[in-house]
Prior knowledge:
By secondary structure, the protein is mostly helical. The chain has eight helices and six strands, in the order ααβααβαβαβαβαβ. The model has no long low-confidence stretch (mean pLDDT 81).
Amino acid sequence: EHDILETFIATLQQEIKPTGGKEVEQISDPVELAELFNQQAPKRNFIVFDHIDHLIKPDVFDAERASFFRLIRELTKGEDNPFRIILSVREEFLAHLADYEAELPEILSNRFRLLPLGQGSSINATANLLDILKVGGKIGVDDPREVSQAVVKELANDQGEVPMHCLQIYLHQMHQQSCADTAEGPVPMTPEL
């Protein structure tokens, strides 16, 4: 398993378009890479660190934790900073984050809990997503609502809820299969997938 900063650096290096200057692969400072990325996409950038609960585990070195929190402080300093940071952590690790509040006093200021969606909400959310992708020419779908109903029917549990992570994985797998079957053009998505 990679250090979270190594993964962040590698991701930025992949996303940054080559410039005329220093080779992006030679830059190892995550703040410098983030600033370079922001120069290429000068708008508010959201950076999501998913599953940071591994940072809280006892087998993670304090140096890795400290360097991660130092990076977050650097990226979010100043009133006009272009970055917003989203930290994703499983609920059972949320209380442990309080131990690091001194590192980032605002770490617990905005918290949201993701709960499973009911069938109606899942259908609406999925249909809206598919419609946006259709309008953008990314997928070919005749009736986004019909595809959404088929997906939600497949995923709903006994309580009629659809866990978001299941919906995300299912749609990703559906898209990957459809891409594999499509030579070119918008990827077709049908209820039969």
